[in-house]
Task: structure prediction
Amino acid sequence: MNTGIRWPLGLSTDTFLREYWQKKPLLIRNALNGFREAVTPDELAGLACEHGVESRLICKRGRKRWTVDYGPFDEGRFSTLPEKQWTLLVTEVNRHVPQAATLLDRFSFIPNWRVDDVMVSYAVPGGGVGPHVDSYDVFLLQGRGQRRWRYHLNRTSDVTFVNGLALRILSHFEPEADEVLGPGDMLYLPPGFAHDGVAVTECTTYSVGFRAPNRGELTAAFVRSFEDDRSLTDLYTDRDLREHDEPGELTEAARVRVRAMIRRIDLSDAAIDAAFAQFASMLKPGHVLDPPRKRVAGTEVKERLQKGVSLARSEECRFVFFPSGKRTINFYYGSNQERLSGAEARLARAVCRQRRLNAQTLGARDALSKEGLAAIARWINAGALSFVGR
Ligand code: SIN
Ligand code: CO
Result:
């Protein structure tokens, strides 16, 4: 897989995954072929003023004093800030800036469902969020300027935080590595490795984050998959109810019946796989697929693809599939689920592989076939794909 990452000498995507992913940090100098900044500090500040964009402004006021303010901010806010020791962080920039979205394609060696977001921070000298640990795998890509990263090379054992702060700052932090990153350099950190990035000069940092759900989240998602079951065939029934003096009691008979109902939950592989796929592709709170105002037909899709117009994949949801039988796949995006085979299945897999698509990358024969055009039109009309420059 060619991701455009320039692994250090002797490493490849395969050896990175085997030796570093989830195991230990890796510093990669000049990490990306053709790296260009996705947003300027001014654009980032502009985003932080918009409703529906999540942002934080963190100022360091003393050795253990920090303040955190949450956006959206007034435009004038940034001109009132000091020259040192603050940082602005904007999450989910991939939803708002196309180049931040396509940056994620460089990391397609990690499965789609693990992707969280691209967060971008801007900091003035001395700015940072303090020493902390994340529960995420993260690639910290330096945009402009320089940032000094001090971090642990072994998983952090002492995770106690300074009391009474709005930020979770480690009370003890003895760094084991100390590096200054410049434009295009990147630091990979697995979850649980303490780190502290302080701006040396005015700088931007792109945090490409990968979530790992815990068992509680996965179980909750599995249970949620039953919520829509409104069937009347498995209702609680108590036809044997008799007169009683204790209306508050959950009787033995009731408890036996409820235990049996819960134990009838389908824990088959198929039921769990379906719930997992729904969880993997589910819209996050506040995310919505944005269908076009005017529905498109297959003929229009054909015309545009033949003219070389590209399609962009929505950043609102994740696109995943799993095989079901030899030639069929279950394809999930947002709350949509489709069972596909043939050209449709091949197209869905191409959509899962990259964020920008055209007739060539989709496979022209499949894309321009009757069922292929209908599938692409369906995905556009669901808001999962859109023509670039529509
Ligand atoms: C930052 O960009 O300043 C914070 C990123 C991180 O430490 O996770
Ligand atoms: Co962090």
